[in-house]
Amino acid sequence: MPHYADSLASLVREHKSPLVVGIDPRWDQLPDSLRQGDSLADRAEAYRRFSIGVIEAVAGVVPAVKPQAAFFEELGPAGMAALGDVIARARGNRLQVILDGKRNDIGSTAEAYARGMLGEASPWGADSVTVSPYLGDDSLAPFVTTAIERDAGLYVLVKTSNPGGALWQDKLIDGKPLYRHVGEHVEHLAEKTAGECGYGLVGAVVGATYPEQLSELRQAMPHTWFLVPGFGAQGGAAADVAGAFDASGLGAVVNSSRGVIFAYNRPEYAQFGQDRWQDAVQQAARDATAQLCDATPAGAL
Ligand SMILES: O=C(O)c1cc(=O)[nH]c(=O)n1[C@@H]1O[C@H](COP(=O)(O)O)[C@@H](O)[C@H]1O
């Protein structure tokens, strides 16, 4: 496989879009036409059809999608089967897949997570995964080893988008907030695994809801590709994520889930109606892309 960050950089350039569409299906917000029955199997089938509909709407428009495992796991085995189909369909449509599971555990168990989610024989086949750093460097090591073996990607939680994240992430340790310590470790791993584009296989999650810290981390972590959630439904605006990009418009992909996949429920896209929900999704992805491109240095993308 080509180096993860190099292929992400070339997809961002090709589509002129740093937008990641988050696939976070929620039963209550699905188009009525997909809500048939109510068993776990019915819901899983609806999530499968909805997610594939989203993929078909945004393929060729954005470089990547981020299925959120939580919504599929919630439905048990049928949900997991749907998640597998969604990942395969996304990859078949030349979309990079960030599998959002935020996993980790002690090193020996992390090895199983890393093999299962990212390894050569992974039944999921994602291009990258999200992981938590709080069990220490030995817990990240199996993911890093597996990512290097497969040229796959990792996004380590550094500064999350939620308000409660500050409780521990902003705690000062030796005069620096904890997220800066985590950021230094991630940057070290990123530098060691850098590809031709200058960015490493190991990336960082940094929320759009903390624009100052986002800019500060961009300066401090020059080899680290950022996954920036919190744009759209959580209140982050395009101006807030401007500091995430480097001078050539690379270095970050920005996620929007609800704001894009449920666009047909937003007043701005009411003209599409439920019947044309996929057109609303595509238009929302195009609009978010345009806003993000305006936030990159002039003419960069
Ligand atoms: O890792 C993530 O993607 C993530 C990290 C974070 O700090 N904040 C955050 O919102 N996320 C995820 O990004 C998505 C945001 O969804 P929306 O708020 O609907 O755009 C959800 O799947 C969250 O789980």
Walkthrough of the structure:
The chain is of the alpha/beta class and 301 residues long. Helix content is 45%, strand content 15%. The protein has helices at 4-15, 40-58, 69-73, 77-92, 107-118, 137-150, 166-169, 178-192, 211-220, 238-241, 258-261, 277-295; strands at 19-23, 64-67, 96-103, 128-131, 153-159, 172-173, 176-177, 202-206, 226-228, 252-256. The chain has an eight-stranded parallel beta barrel with strand order 1-2-3-4-5-8-9-10, surrounded by eight helices. Strands 6-7 form a two-stranded antiparallel ribbon. The longest helix is centred in the first third of the chain and has 19 residues, at 40-58. The model has no long low-confidence stretch (mean pLDDT 97). Bound molecules: orotidine-5'-monophosphate (OMP). Orotidine-5'-monophosphate binds next to strand 3, strand 10 and helix 11. Its EC number is 4.1.1.23. One of its GO terms (biological process) is 'de novo' pyrimidine nucleobase biosynthetic process. Residues 18-272 form the Orotidine 5'-phosphate decarboxylase domain.
Topology:
Layout: H1 4-15, E1 19-23, H2 40-58, E2 64-67, H3 69-73, H4 77-92, E3 96-103, H5 107-118, E4 128-131, H6 137-150, E5 153-159, H7 166-169, E6 172-173, E7 176-177, H8 178-192, E8 202-206, H9 211-220, E9 226-228, H10 238-241, E10 252-256, H11 258-261, H12 277-295
Parallel strand pairs: 1-2, 1-10, 2-3, 3-4, 4-5, 5-8, 8-9, 9-10
Antiparallel strand pairs: 6-7
Helix pairs in contact: 2-4, 2-12, 5-6
The structure holds orotidine-5'-monophosphate.
Residues 22, 24, 68, 100, 102, 130, 160-162, 205, 207, 229-230, 232-234, 255-259 line the site of orotidine-5'-monophosphate.
